[in-house]
Specification:
two-stranded antiparallel ribbon; 4% strand; globular
Length: 311
């Protein structure tokens, strides 16, 4: 709870940031928030439950395409898309979690990479349903009404930014509550010693599956927000490189630390803005940072800091 209270000034600062920033800088901040949701979601399944996944981009895309397809075919609004994107992505997470019951380590990683590839091929090749490589466009999110009274319209970049910030805060609070619940403690027990966790009566099957569902649902929410903010979706927004980037964010910041993935997302998402002409090599730089982090600080920046301060 202290950590959440300490975050209030940061949230307040982010809320007023658009008043002092231009459109480009606000877009960068919004991108950081998308990656924060993705990195914290991945941390639930990998950092806390110990189940490696390279499929974040797939769940991210499932949420985005759920919103785009529902908007095209049903004419629904973002308020329907947010829970729908989370539910559909969560169901896909449940589907991917089933192999996790029998696979570990590199074998599980290969399965998640295969899943990521399958999802990308489906959304890029099923032209009649997903729009293929051209993708799908989306209208404005629409007005916010209470009892028939319109409070404000989603017609500006700031309105999408504030919605994204609000949803990011909600996602982080939900993740925090999960981590500190009985279920979160079960995840940690499975991560530390799955055999022992099962021996003392913990339901490891439920633990793994719920971790995958929670992780996928958060990625689905990020996908819906991205689809609406960009006013459309294309397959190239949800490639395996997104998954690799989110893994780097989590590892560099610190797995299983909650704050670590947030810091890692903020750092790596904004890093290209400071690279200038070298920004085109960002994936190479991310890879180098990932290798250095695994080699020199396997517990991540936040994990190393906590280890030193606790001595």
């Amino acid at each position: 709870m202290k950590t959440l209270l300490a975050a209030i000034p940061a949230v307040a600062l982010l809320a007023v940031a658009p008043f002092g920033l231009g459109g480009y800088e606000t877009n960068v901040l919004m991108m950081v928030l998308f990656f924060v949701i993705l990195a914290v979601g991945l941390d639930l399944v990998s950092g806390y439950c110990g189940q490696f996944s390279f499929a974040t981009g797939a769940f991210y895309g499932v949420g985005a395409y759920t919103a785009a397809i529902m908007s095209r075919d049903l004419g629904t609004s973002i308020w329907v898309h947010l829970p729908a994107g989370a539910i559909v992505a969560g169901l896909f997470g449940l589907l991917l979690g089933i192999p996790a019951l029998r696979l570990k380590g590199h074998f599980l990683a290969i399965v998640t990479i295969a899943f990521q590839t399958i999802v990308y091929l489906v959304i890029s090749q099923w032209t009649s349903f997903t729009g293929g490589q051209v993708g799908l466009t989306m209208p404005n999110a629409g007005p916010v009404r209470i009892f028939g009274v319109t409070l404000f319209e989603f017609g500006s970049l700031r309105s999408y930014y504030w919605l994204t910030l609000a949803m990011t805060v909600i996602c982080l609070i939900l993740a925090w509550r999960l981590i500190h619940s009985r279920l979160g403690r079960e995840w940690v027990a499975i991560r530390d010693d799955e055999t022992l966790a099962g021996a003392v009566g913990l339901d490891t099957t439920r633990g793994k599956l719920t971790a995958f569902v929670a992780y996928a649902a958060l990625a689905g929410v990020a996908g819906v927000l991205t689809a609406h903010s960009l006013r459309g979706v294309t397959p190239d927004d949800f490639t395996i490189w997104i998954s690799a980037t989110v893994v780097a964010m989590m590892v560099v910041g610190g797995r299983g630390t909650f704050v670590g993935p947030i810091i890692g997302a903020a750092f790596l998402a904004t890093l290209p803005e400071f690279l200038g002409k070298f920004a085109e090599y960002k994936m190479l730089i991310y890879g180098v940072l990932l290798v250095l982090a695994i080699t020199l600080v396997p517990e991540g920046v936040v994990g190393r800091w906590r280890a030193r301060t606790s001595r």
